[in-house]
Amino acid sequence: MERNDFSWMIGGAQGSGVDTSAIIFAKSAAQGGLRVYGNREYYSNIKGEHSYFRVRLSKDQIRSHVDTVDMLATFDDETAVRHAWEVRKDGAIIYDPSLGSNPIENIQTIEANVESRLYSKLDANGLPHTVDGVLEIARRNGVHIYAIPYLELLKKVGEQVGETSLSALTKMTNVMAVAASFALLDYPQDEVINAIRKQFKSKPKAAEMNVAMIAITYDYVREKYNGSFGYKLRTIPTTEKRILLRGSTTIGMAKILSGCRLQTYYPITPASDESEYLEAHENIDLEVMVDNELKSMKGAVTVVQTEDEIAAVTMAIGGALAGSRASTSTSGPGFSLMAEGMGWAGINEVPLVITLYQRGGPSTGLPTRHEQGDLRFALHTGHGDFPRIVLASGDLEEMFFDVTRSFNYAEKYQLPVVHIVDKAMANSDMTYKMFDPSLAKIERGLLIKGAVPGHEDGPFDRFKETATGVSPRPAIGTKGGIYWNTGDEHDEKGHISEDPLNRDMMMEKRMRKLDLAAEEIPLEEKVHFFGPKDAQITLVSWGSTKGAILDAMEALNAEGLSVNFLQIRLVQPFPTDYVKDVLSHAKKVIDVEMNYSGQLGGVIREMTCVPVERYIVKYNGRPMSSEEIYDAVKKIADGSAPNRIVLRNGA
Length: 651
Prior knowledge:
Helix content is 39%, strand content 21%. By secondary structure, it is of the alpha/beta class.
C-alpha cells in the first residue's frame, strides 16, 4: 500500500508523559497546516505498564492509522524492543544510548510470551538479549538509528535555566524525544515552541524550560546528524479553520451544545473521559437553535458521579422525567447493569440517552482496549419488548452531530436511545474543518410548555393512545400534568393494569414509535454509501472501521480495484429496504467488523434475508489499520484468501 504521509510513534511507561508528548507533536503539525490522525493505546493500570501513541501526518485528508512506522521515538527500553519491528526500511528509531546494554529480562512489564518471541528473533540472528540486540536487527533491516543522550542534554538545559533538580529535568525527557523527532525532520522550530507554550500555558516555568530544551535538542541533532534522515516535514499554508479534536472531548462538547443539562456516570474506561470533560466545562453561555428558534442558553450542566451504574441510569431517568435533557455514559460492564433501568425507561416512555463506549469483553475483558462487541447487546438490552433507537457513529464528526440527533430522537419519539461509539474513537485525535454548530438543531418533540389546560383538578392521560404512539409529555411538576409512573404495565394515566386489552393497546402504542421513526428519520442519518454503485467489491460495516475502510478504498481504487462501502449508522430501526437493495445487487460483499462473530452480518441476514458470506474481523483489542484492510481485500479479490480473514496486527 503506497502512502503519501508520515507515521510517527512514541511510547513509554504510563505516567511518563506519553500522551502529553504525542499531543504536542500533533499540535505542532496541525498548526503548521498538516492533517493529523492519532490514536492512543494503553494498559489497564494507572502507572508503569507500557503505552504508546501513533500520530499520522499528511497534506491530504487521513482517517486512520497505519501499522508501518516511519519514525519511532523512544525514551525507555521497552518501547524500543516492542516496536522496533514495526519501523520501515529507511525509517528511524530515536533511543537513549545509555539503555542499549539493558537485558530484556530486566524489563519487568513485558509479558512472558512477548519476551519469548523477542528471544527467538534475537537467537535466530545470533544477537544478545538486549536493547542493542534488537536495534541491531533494525539496523540490518535498513532502519536509521539515532542516539540522543537525554541526560547529558537535560543537564545542559539545567545549567542554562538554573534548574539543579534532576527529577525536574527528567520530566522533560518525553518532550525531548518530540524535539529530536522534529529536528531530524527539519520541521520549523517555532511551530514546536508555540505548541509547547499552549500545552503548558498554566505552567509558565515548565513551558520556558521546555522551550530551552527544544533549542538545545535541535542544535545537537543538527550538529550530530546534519540532515542524514531522508524524510523532511514542511508546513503547508492554509486558510481553512481547523480544530484538533479527541473523541471523548467531541461528545462532551456536543452534549453541552445539544442542551444536555444532567450527565450521570460511574467511572469506567473509556467512558469517564467524557464526563470529566463536562465537569471541567459545566458553565454555559451560548446560542442554539431550539425548535427552529434561536435561543440564548446560560446556566450549567450538572454532572453527578454516582455510586454505581444502576444509580447512574435511574438518576438520568429522573432528570428526563423532570424535563431536562439527561444522559449517562458507560462501557460494557456498566451497560450490563443499566439493563433494568433501560427497560423502565422503555415502559414509561422516558427520553433517555445512553452513550455506550464499547471496549473488549466479555466481563472485564480488555478494559482499555478496542472492540465492537456490543451491537447485539444494544439491540436487545432488557427483558421484554420495548422500543429503542440504536445509532452508531463512524468518526468524530458523526459523533458530534449524532449527539444532538440522539437527544432529538429520544424526545421526539419518547424512548431510550443508545448512541454507540467505542474505545478507538474515544481515544483518537483528528483534525477537522471547524464544525458549524448551527447544524445541531434541538427538537424537543411533544414536551408541553406551561400549564396543561383543562386538567387543573384531575389526572392527565400521559400515555394516551395516539396514531403515532407518541403522546404529549409534561415535565414532572407541570401544573395540570399529574400522572403516575410505575415499572408495571399501566393504563393511559399510568395506573397499574393487567387487563389483556389494555396490555395489547399499550404494547402496540409503544412499538408504533419505531415505525414512525423509520418513516421520519432521513436516509442520510441511517446509512452512508461511498464509491461507485457498480463496484467489483462492496464493503459493509459500522462504527470506527469507517476511517480505515475509506483510506484503504482510496488505495485500492487507485490501483484499479473498484470498491464501494455501505456504512450502517441506524441499526434500530434498521434501514431494511435500502440495505437489501444495495447488497442484493452487489457483486461481492465483505463484512468488516471488530468482533469475533460478525454481529452486523448476522443482523443484516436477519433483517434482509441477504446472506453475508465473506468477513474481515479483528478482536485482539487493537483497532484495524487501513493497511490491514487493504491487504485483506486484495487477497479476497484475487481469490487467495478464505471467506473469513482474521486480522492480528498490534502490539
